[in-house]
């Protein structure tokens, strides 16, 4: 057991295999199709994305000032770059899988243009919030964090200017995540 749980890649593979077994076992009751697979992936990547967003905002960022200077390098040099890698790609894959779901169910254009009513308009609001959040991740937070973490060369002034930009974009995403989650779970579109 220690060998299994000590290896994250192996845990993920076993989790994937178990998911496929469950899908096949319950296929008569919950058909396995593009829609169901992409919904499952959308929820998985969304949990990863928002979970890391909340980790950054509720744990890492607030605790950084209290971490002794000699220990900050462990966070900025090792933990933060890995967190931001999964954060970026979870955002991207959440958006892609959401777009596939909307496209496969023929409401993508109606949702994005708010030309649909009721649940389609609600999901459109959630989609736009997610798109704004993904934009913030890739085009504001990540470029700023590359400077802050020393992944790209930046002067002390550039690093100092990048920090509030990253924080504002990250807190904007935290703010938007709350109504976005409501939109996504309340629309109930097939």
From TrEMBL:
The chain crosses the membrane at residues 7-29, 41-63, 83-104, 116-141. InterPro entries: UCP032086, Urate_ox_N. Keywords: Membrane, Transmembrane, Transmembrane helix. Residues 96-187 form the Urate oxidase N-terminal domain. The keyword Transmembrane applies. Coiled coil: none annotated. The keyword Transmembrane helix applies. This is Membrane protein. It comes from Novosphingobium endophyticum.
């Amino acid at each position: 057991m220690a060998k299994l749980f000590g290896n994250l890649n192996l845990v993920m593979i076993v989790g994937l295999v178990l998911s496929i077994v469950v899908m096949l076992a319950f296929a008569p009751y919950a058909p396995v199709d593009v829609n169901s697979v992409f919904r499952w992936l959308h929820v998985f990547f969304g949990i990863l994305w928002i979970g890391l967003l909340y980790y950054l905002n509720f744990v890492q960022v607030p605790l950084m000032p209290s971490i002794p200077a000699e220990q900050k390098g462990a966070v900025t040099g090792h933990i933060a770059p890995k967190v931001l890698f999964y954060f970026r790609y979870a955002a991207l894959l959440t958006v892609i899988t959401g777009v596939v779901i909307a496209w496969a169910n023929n409401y993508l254009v109606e949702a994005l243009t708010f030309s649909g009513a009721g649940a389609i308009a609600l999901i459109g609001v959630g989609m736009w919030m997610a798109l704004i959040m993904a934009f913030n991740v890739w085009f504001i937070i990540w470029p700023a964090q590359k400077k802050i973490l020393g992944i790209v060369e930046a002067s002390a002034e550039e690093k100092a200017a990048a920090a509030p930009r990253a924080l504002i974009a990250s807190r904007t995403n935290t703010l938007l995540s709350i109504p976005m989650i409501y939109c996504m779970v309340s629309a109930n579109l097939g």
